[in-house]
Specification:
The structure holds three protein chains of three kinds. Chain A is α/β, with parallel strands linked by helices. Chain A is built from twelve helices and six strands. Chain A has helices at 3-8, 12-28, 39-49, 68-84, 98-113, 130-139, 141-144, 180-192, 202-205, 209-213, 223-233, 239-276, and strands at residues 56-62, 88-93, 121-126, 171-176, 196-200, 220-222. In chain A, helix 3 packs across helix 11 and helix 4 runs parallel beside helix 11. Helices cover 74% and strands 4% of the residues of chain B. Chain B has a domain at 127-213. In chain B, strands 1-2 form a two-stranded antiparallel sheet. By secondary structure, chain C is mainly α. Chain C has a domain at 129-201. Classes of the chains: A alpha/beta, B mainly alpha, C mainly alpha. Chains in contact: A-B, A-C, B-C. The interface between B and C is large, with 122 and 115 residues.
Chain lengths: 277, 213, 208
């Protein structure tokens, strides 16, 4: 087998093992790469920082367990930022599998900051039909969610007392693993004028740029890196910052493999051309 | 009745939901809210139907002893135990959230994390700078991969006295050419979906009704 | 630096390894875990669907708050179950038509507003007061959006200037796809980091 052939056909088990090590080693032995803040994250932070104590945000957990590694750090950071500044949180989820995740994160954050359920935050739970829910919230929160996640009437929950529509919400924060942030911008933002910011998986974040540029989503967090940047801004290092070393090394490794494959390909083409001559 | 009825219903509901956008009339507002409420219930029941289909699929698989039928017992048992846990101990605490946190979520997230290995292997094999456009794709991908992680901040230098950083370049790529491409696609999709919606309301598009009678 | 004694984390850890075992090859441990995931997830979702649709959106408003009109939604929902029998399958077309048409009705104005007009408006080139670099970027954005749309314009054959412009469009699309690839890798690696963090921190206690 020619050298270039070997360069182009590395066994996939070697690739798998290398990727595993590239991720595992920096987690065990942190390298401490610095996290630089992007403009999108800075704008997300500014939107949150502009809120006043007592303001209410609608935090939508638009994801399930599959992408929690990317999005949990964002949701945790948003809750820390909100609770530490006396901002109240109405949480919902647009995924049936998002209920367990939201419950856990809300409870952990509330316990840490001594927040009371029903007064400082509430979890209204899951509702089927994304767009229908987002539009209905624009008309009536209480009709959209007659009860919270635990079956308690929203009329008996203090935080819900003065909340009728998006007008009573200072900011909508969508933490999303799919196109849900876009839908919030279309239905809550476009139709009802709600201010929407988002935290997105990396795959989804790439599609947010047109909304961001048009001001429909004035700030967003892109992937685990976005979470790390936000954690740095609010001075609460978490899983985002801790994951950045592994992220860097794994990216460098994957690019190295692509480079090796391409060098092999060029050598192969040169050899072919020589043969033809 | 079997085909014309649903088409007439679609026209009436579609027109109502369209007109309400342009009028503050109380009737339309009321109808809009009611239809949104109905719609949420319909979808909820549809999801329940979906779960029923899953149960039926595995039941048939066991009954006919199809390949790997033994594993269907695992699926049905998992489903039954989770539902029973919710019925007996409720959903807020106990075995129901325990199963979610320690069985469902870890496996769900691991399943998706497997893709990291396959993406690495596939990109190594498929990404070749064969043509101008393939090279462009490769360069843009590499810029984003390096520029959006902390390691990228080390990669900067100056050319003819002008300071250039990889982070700034990747930011520009994302905010200008990438945003342009995505916006072009978005406008195109927006036009396509609007046209499809009009066709549904007018009864031109009927594929959602299934096969003809 | 100690292995956890939490049974739940042990179960999660073992199931995580069972899924990872697929990297070697398809095997009974993986298949067991895969089927268990489907079953437990379906059970979890079923409870949530039932609670949210049948209780929260139907029982409470109809029987506790007296909004009887919502019963119609419940009937429409139940009609979906006619799909289970071949003879009554056609009845389920009513709730399907209702759902799709309601969506189609409100999609039209909102999509035109948010995804077409506002996006087109933001693309318009207005260099007044802009620094040179920004103006240049705004111009490139306009060219990119226009040529991408031209690339997807299939009503006329791509010849002459149309061909040239659509080639410019492909160039922008390729840069966009490259960026998508980069972010895709980023996302997948992040998910793997999450699992390794769980294994090393929560389960094995190697990392704090």
């Amino acid at each position: 087998m020619a050298f270039y052939d070997r360069m182009m056909s590395i066994d996939r088990r070697i690739i798998f093992l290398s990727v595993g090590l590239a991720v595992a080693i920096p987690i065990i032995v942190p390298l401490g790469f610095p996290v630089q803040i992007s403009e999108e994250t800075m704008n997300f932070y500014r939107e949150m920082a502009a809120l006043k104590p007592g303001d209410i945000i609608l935090l939508s957990f638009d994801y399930e367990g599959d992408v929690m590694a990317e999005l949990n750090p964002m949701a945790v950071a948003v809750l820390k930022h909100a609770f530490s500044r006396g901002i109240k949180v109405i949480a919902i989820t647009t995924y049936a599998g998002g209920t367990g995740i939201a419950e856990r994160l809300l409870t952990e954050a509330a316990n840490r900051y001594g927040k009371t359920y029903g007064v400082d935050y509430v979890f209204l739970g899951y509702n089927p039909d994304w767009s229908g829910t987002m539009l209905r919230l624009g008309e009536s929160f209480k009709a959209t969610y007659p009860t919270d996640q635990y079956g308690k009437s929203v009329y008996e929950i203090p935080i819900m007392k003065n909340v009728e529509t998006y007008r009573d919400i200072a900011l909508v924060v969508s933490i999303s693993g799919s196109a849900l942030s876009e839908y919030w911008a279309i239905w809550a933002g476009g139709r009802y004028g709600a201010r929407v910011i988002s935290g997105n998986t990396a795959i989804q974040a790439i599609l947010i740029y047109p909304y961001y540029k048009a001001g429909q989503i004035p700030g967003f967090l892109g992937g685990l890196k976005g979470a790390a940047e936000y954690e740095k801004l609010i001075n609460a290092p978490g899983m985002g910052i801790r994951g950045m070393d592994a992220q860097s090394v794994a990216h460098a490794l994957m690019l190295a493999f692509i480079l090796v494959g391409n060098v092999g390909y060029f050598l192969f083409r040169r050899a072919k051309r020589r043969e033809q001559k | 009745m079997k085909r014309q009825g649903p088409i007439i219903l679609a026209f009436a509901i579609g027109m109502l939901m369209l007109i309400q956008f342009f009028t503050p009339a109380a009737f339309f507002k009321e109808a809009y809210n009611t239809i949104l409420d109905w719609k949420q219930v319909v979808l909820g029941f549809t999801f329940i139907l979906g779960t029923w289909s899953l149960i039926r699929y595995h039941y048939i698989k066991i009954n006919r002893k199809r390949e790997n039928w033994q594993y269907s017992y695992v699926t049905l048992a998992g489903l039954a135990i989770t539902v029973l846990a919710a019925l007996i101990w409720k959903t807020a605490e106990g075995p129901y959230p325990w199963l979610f946190n320690n069985v469902q979520v870890p496996m769900q997230s691991t399943m998706f994390s497997l893709l990291a290995f396959f993406v690495a292997s596939a990109s190594y094999r498929a990404f070749r700078a064969r043509t101008f456009h393939a090279t462009l794709l490769l360069i843009a991908g590499a810029l984003v991969m390096l520029g959006r992680v902390p390691i990228g901040s080390y990669l900067s230098g100056s050319i003819f006295g002008v300071k250039i950083s990889l982070v700034a370049i990747s930011d520009w790529v994302l905010n200008v050419p990438n945003a342009a491409a995505k916006r072009g696609i978005m406008i195109g999709v927006g036009l396509g979906m609007t046209a499809t919606a009009i066709k549904i309301i007018l009864g031109i598009e009927q594929t959602y009704l299934g096969k003809t009678d | 630096m100690a292995v956890t004694h939490d049974l739940g984390i042990w179960v999660a850890g073992i199931l995580t390894l069972a899924i990872f075992s697929f990297l070697y090859k398809d095997n009974p441990f993986y298949r067991f875990a895969e089927h268990l995931l489907v079953g437990v997830s379906a059970g979890y979702y079923l409870v949530q669907y039932f609670f949210s649709a049948a209780y929260k959106k139907l029982w409470v408003p109809v029987f506790q708050e007296g909004h009887h009109v919502l019963l119609v939604g419940g009937i429409l929902g139940l009609l979906m179950f006619t799909r289970l029998f071949r003879r009554t399958e056609w009845i389920s077309r009513y709730p399907v038509a209702f759902y799709i048409a309601a969506w189609a009705g409100y999609v039209i104005p909102s999509y035109i507003q948010v995804r077409i007009l506002q996006q087109a408006q933001d693309t318009m080139f207005n260099p007044r007061g802009m620094p040179l670099g920004e103006a240049l970027s705004a111009l490139i954005l306009l060219i990119g959006v226009s040529t991408t749309l031209i690339y997807f314009y299939f009503s006329a054959e791509h010849r002459g200037p149309l061909k040239t412009l659509s080639k410019v469009g492909i160039t922008f699309l390729m840069i966009g796809f490259g960026a998508t690839f980069g972010y895709n890798v980023m996302g997948r690696v992040s998910l793997l980091i999450g699992r390794f963090q769980f294994l090393f921190t929560d389960w094995l206690g190697i990392v704090h």
